[in-house]
Design brief:
single chain, six-stranded parallel sheet, about 45% helix
Length: about 250
């Protein structure tokens, strides 16, 4: 749980980038055109987040449920993703942004997996902003994997059941080793008001911001509006407002 100074940007923002297909349909275009427009919007938001001083940005790029989509759409998405990896990662590296991928990588082609490893290796030393890209990710999967990891420790005699607490469990999640694993601000575009199996554990105390704006139209202005909304929130984490004010003045 992050307690940011008043007026400071969120240390960590998580985004579900929803509405690419509807954006394309409303313009009489194929869904693939919406995904291309969505990629351009992602580039803009990543750059602007770094410029605003955001420490970490987590983008829900491809969920575990997205594998249910038509095979032709998935194929085009993978082509788009692979094409962006090379060019975009070099630019991110030049801008001091570290790239990490979370999710079930083994579900993707060997070529894509190799591209992910290379992107992480190239940008590993960057400190300006951490960009987590969730691919083949599901919040329930994340929790189950953490539980399996601890169960394996118990089976091997390296841990006892009573050793498990929230801190140890959280450390085993996909974002467990990140400086700020729990997002301060969650954004979902496209009008839906649910978290759709995204970062279930990490969003426990996150401020949830929903907008009807479709993702390709979100951009810098949309991000600024979300951050402005976040700045007006009073985050108490179970405390009274008087306690929060006392802590801030300490």
């Amino acid at each position: 749980m992050n307690a940011n100074p008043i007026g400071a940007p969120p240390a960590h923002i998580a985004i579900i980038m929803d509405g690419n297909g509807r954006w394309a349909k409303s313009r009489g275009m194929l869904r693939h055109a919406g995904h291309k427009a969505g990629l351009n919007a992602a580039r803009e938001v990543i750059e602007h987040s770094a410029a605003r001083g955001v420490g970490a940005l987590t983008l829900f790029t491809f969920s575990s449920e997205n594998w249910r989509r038509p095979e032709s759409e998935i194929s085009r998405l993978m082509e788009l993703f692979l094409g962006a990896l090379g060019k975009d990662v070099r630019e991110l590296h030049q801008n001091g942004i570290r790239v990490r991928f979370i999710g079930r990588r083994h579900s993707f082609s060997n070529k894509l997996q190799q591209g992910m490893r290379e992107a992480e290796a190239l940008t590993a030393g960057n400190r300006r902003m951490l960009l987590n890209i969730a691919v083949g990710y599901g919040g329930r999967w994340d929790v189950v994997e953490a539980a399996r990891a601890f169960a394996a420790e118990v089976a091997d005699g390296a841990a006892k059941p009573q050793d498990l607490d929230e801190h140890r469990f959280a450390a085993a999640l996909s974002l467990g080793d990140a400086p700020d694993p729990d997002p301060d601000l969650f954004i979902r575009t496209g009008g839906e008001q649910r978290i759709s199996n995204f970062l279930l554990w990490n969003l426990a105390y996150t401020e949830l911001y929903f907008t009807d704006v479709l993702w390709p139209d979100f951009g810098k202005q949309g991000l600024d509006q979300a951050i402005e909304w976040y700045a007006a929130r009073k985050r108490r984490f179970g405390k009274t407002q008087e306690q929060v004010e006392e802590d801030a003045g300490a």
